[in-house]
Amino acid sequence: PATVTSASNVQLLAAIIECEAGGESYEGKIAVGNVVMNRVASNRYPNTIAEVLYQRSQFTPVTSGRFVLVLSRGANGTCTQAAQDVLSGKRAVGTEIYHFCRVNGTPVTIIGNHVFY
Fold this sequence. Notes:
Distance between the termini: 34 Å
Strand order of the largest sheet: 1-3-2
Largest sheet: 3 strands, antiparallel
Helix content: 40-55%
Radius of gyration: 13 Å
Strand content: 5-15%
Number of helices: 6
Number of strands: 3
């Protein structure tokens, strides 16, 4: 089983995509991956995927422990493909989008049940 220290960027990104957007469209999965990568690229957030995901109180599945469970068993194929596509440059939201939620926020883009802002 993958651990956080031994997991690849694809595995980490796929796991958070499954946790946050497993039931969303493929575009929604890509958008969640874009949010993570936008944070990695920003000087306002840590500069690795693992550090972004484990930044305090940022991703509910990380805090709840669900992320580690998905990471340990491996994310599903669609989420893994989405992670690979995101790491290859596929985009569903702009480069200045750093957040998403299911309820509130200043909407910039709505994809499925997520509001990206």
